[in-house]
Design a protein that fits this description.
The protein is α/β, with parallel strands linked by helices. The protein is built from 13 helices and 7 strands. The protein binds S-adenosylmethionine.
């Protein structure tokens, strides 16, 4: 199947990673190979790119392309980037360090418009927002078994949805009558719950609820938190890490992690002397982060919520 995914801030990512011939790089979120293909060009035949994805379809398509185009310097792994150190150990020597690492978080347009899945609202497909199809169907388990309080917390925290309480209460009422099975079931429930005058203008009223359930299903924030320290450890001195996030919660995790790791001391401000012995590991190259250009926003509306942050290992 031809991909419809347009890579976000491709030029900004590649330019800022400053990749050279012979470099070793990791793309933690292969997707439709947008970044991976550019990285392969930059590292040339002497370099290597290790690319990971949780999605079996993305992996299968990338394997086809690798074969067709004889991309011998590409290693593809079906895995979660939270296991990055383990994956590196599988393919390289223990001492191997990398010149660049990138992750482009969330889901691709290919996943969003996949009719067999229910990442999108109108879908009659089973409610299943797991990136990997091998895993248990956690979205249905979450929605049909979690307590009202747990659902409210997920929808409020991960979706920043002001109607989290009434949505979660209606989910619990509805599932007593019948199991909530499809994307459409959930979208109808949210549509009935949120008063029309509060519907957002440009996006579906169920967007925030879907996003919250997707984040919970895939443990997206936990994945990112576990990945960041491993990524810094895997970089060579002067090596660069780029993270593209689409959600303020993800961006906050990256921003705070970078800030902490860029400091020599992380003792509380009232401490008279430093006792933490923490030493800066990185330099932040993008204090405010980079957002998509006006031209890109016009061509690819998906880029509107993207923020790119880059750090360099000291
Ligand atoms: C926004 S897309 C990446 C698109 C890619 N940069 C491109 O240009 O084609 C995000 C991809 O990351 C994958 N993904 C999300 N979380 C992941 C994780 N924890 N580990 C590995 N892959 C993950 C998704 O399955 C999806 O294919």
């Amino acid at each position: 199947m031809a991909s419809i995914h347009i890579p976000v801030m491709l030029k900004e990512v590649i330019d800022n990673l400053q990749v050279k011939k012979g470099d070793y790089c990791i793309d933690g979120t292969l997707g439709a190979m947008g970044y991976t293909k550019e990285l392969l060009k930059e590292v040339g035949k002497e370099g290597k790119v290790l690319s990971l994805d949780l999605d079996e379809k993305a992996i299968a398509e990338a394997n086809e392309i690798k074969k067709e185009e004889s991309l011998d310097n590409l290693i593809i792994e079906h895995s979660n980037f939270r296991n990055i150190k383990e994956i590196v150990k599988k393919h390289f020597s223990l001492q191997q360090k990398f010149n660049c690492i990138v992750v482009d978080l969330g889901l691709s347009s290919d996943q969003l418009y996949d009719r067999e899945r229910s990442f999108s609202f109108q879908s009659d497909a089973p409610l299943d927002m797991a990136f990997s199809r091998e895993e248990l169907n956690d979205t249905q388990r979450i929605i049909n078994t979690y307590s009202q309080k747990e659902l409210e917390k997920i929808i409020k925290e991960y979706g920043e949805e002001r109607f989290a309480k009434s949505i979660s209460s209606n989910i619990v009422k509805e599932r007593k009558k019948k199991t909530i099975k499809t994307g459409k079931d959930l979208q109808n429930l949210v549509t009935k719950t949120v008063p029309k005058r509060f519907w957002p203008k440009n996006v579906n009223v169920a967007t925030k609820t879907f996003q919250a359930l997707r984040i919970a299903t895939n443990e997206e924030l936990q994945n990112l938190e576990e990945f960041l320290p491993q990524a810094i450890e895997l970089l060579k001195p002067q090596g660069r890490l780029a993270v593209v996030s689409f959600h303020s919660l993800e961006d906050r995790i990256v921003k705070h992690y970078f800030k902490r790791e860029a400091k020599d001391c992380i003792c509380p401000p009232q401490a008279p002397i430093c006792v933490c012995k923490h030493r800066a590991k990185i330099k932040i190259l993008t204090p405010k982060g980079i957002t998509a250009s006006k031209e890109e926003l016009e061509k690819n509306p998906r880029s509107r919520s993207a923020r790119l942050r880059i750090a360099q290992k000291i």
